[in-house]
Amino acid sequence: MTKKRQQRSADFKFRLALEAAKEQKTLSQLASEYEVHPTQITQWKKQLLEGGSSLFGRQQVREQQAQTAREAELFEQIGRLQMELAWVKKKLTVSVEAKRSLLEPDHPELSIRCQCALLGLHRASYYYQAQPIDPLNLDLLRRIDQQYMETPFYGVPRMTAVLRTQGYAVNRKRVRRLMRQLGIQAVMLRKRPATSTPGHRIYPYLLRDQVIDGPNQVWCADITYVPMPLGFVYLVAIMDWWSRFIIAWEIATSLEGSFCCAALDRALLRGKPTMFNTDQGSQFTAQAFTSRLETAGVQISMDGRGRVFDNIFIERFWRSVKYEHLYLHDYQSVPAVVAGVRGSMDVYNTQRLHQSLAYRTPAAVYGAG
After folding, report:
1. Whose CB has fewer CB within 10 Å in the chain, the N or C terminal residue?
2. Is residue 72 very low, low, confident or very high in pLDDT (cuts 50, 70, 90)?
3. Alpha helices in the chain (DSSP H)
4. Has this prediction a pTM greater than 0.85?
């Protein structure tokens, strides 16, 4: 039987979008708890954040429109109100599962459509069977990420072979899909580079043959993911090239560009670089991100497609953070991840000695410069 599109009430969408905006749980955790796809949660969250600022300015117009709609609805419902009201009084509840149990498919007068409408339940919810998240995929994501940190030149065929030697019965299609989900690919030159996001400007790479001899000459940024038992969160960091000092970082439960902009705003409060280098990810090529740099008078530089060594310092930083901290802890919640990453950043900046910095800490080198 063909599944029909599921509809949710406005109150349900608002509460779920508000929960996602708090970022106390991952999108996968929310999707599993409320039986809603993560992409739908992201869209509702975006609508809430974009439309929230205009709610108060249009309050009077909305009240008039609501009044007109209520009057029209009242006139429409007068003919059937008496029968439906008697049925609703004994069936009214708030739980989705309870509502599904109260439906009577063989009712002589009220159809399934009418019963669902009276209970505030879409018909698709009556037939929908939630699909649990496969824990094997989460385990494979962690394995692929760990292997990529060691051998970034492994593509889909060799990554598949490695997983098979570890006892996982996977094929290339599954490994390719998971690698795309992580946003990683083998480090190699491409004959036909992938096209950029439509409408986003791609800037040239400016760091070739540049001499970096002081702080705040070049900053760089990148995004990685932090695994959790159910889903994962995303971490962005902004680093000073000369000192390896992490100037700012942010964590989010989705790959929307707002958390990258928040990290950039925090970094610009500490100083302003001459050049800022990133990859060609949509978060960094978006107008909301590049306009902040242009307003501050910062030159924008971007890596070439598939050239991981163009931004090698922060790529090496991800390996240090993951192997020295993230892979050693089993975080169960988003607040725990935030607290753990905050501690690891403090250790990295102020305590961890770097061989390339003559065994000094990034904070000491950045402050001295």
Report:
1. N
2. confident
3. 10-22, 27-34, 38-51, 59-77, 81-89, 96-102, 112-119, 123-127, 135-150, 156-165, 172-182, 258-268, 282-285, 287-295, 312-324, 334-350, 362-368
4. no
Of 50, 25, 48, which Cα lies nearest the Cα of 38? 25
Range of the domain at 167: 135-182
CA distances from 278 to 71, 147, 283, 303 (A): 55, 23, 10, 6
pLDDT at 194 over 50: no
Percentages helix, strand, coil for the chain (3-state, rounded to 5) are 55, 10, 35
pLDDT digits (tens, 9 = 90+) for 203-253: 888 888 888 888 899 999 999 988 888 778 899 999 999 999 999 999 998
Counted domains in the chain: 3
Instruction: Based on the fold, state whether residues 105 and 238 are members of the same structural domain.
Output: no
Looking at the structure, tell me whether residues 122 and 166 fall in a common domain: no
Cα radius of gyration rounded to whole Å, the chain: 26
Whether the CB-CB separation of 225 and 235 falls below 8 Å is answered with: yes
Say what the pLDDT of residue 301 is. Answer: 92
Question: Nearest Cα to 28, choosing from 226, 181, 231?
Answer: 231
Whether pLDDT at 192 is above 70: no
Per the model's pLDDT, the better-predicted residue between 37 and 74 turns out to be: 37
Q: Are residues 234 and 363 in the same domain?
A: yes
256 and 358 assigned to the same domain: yes
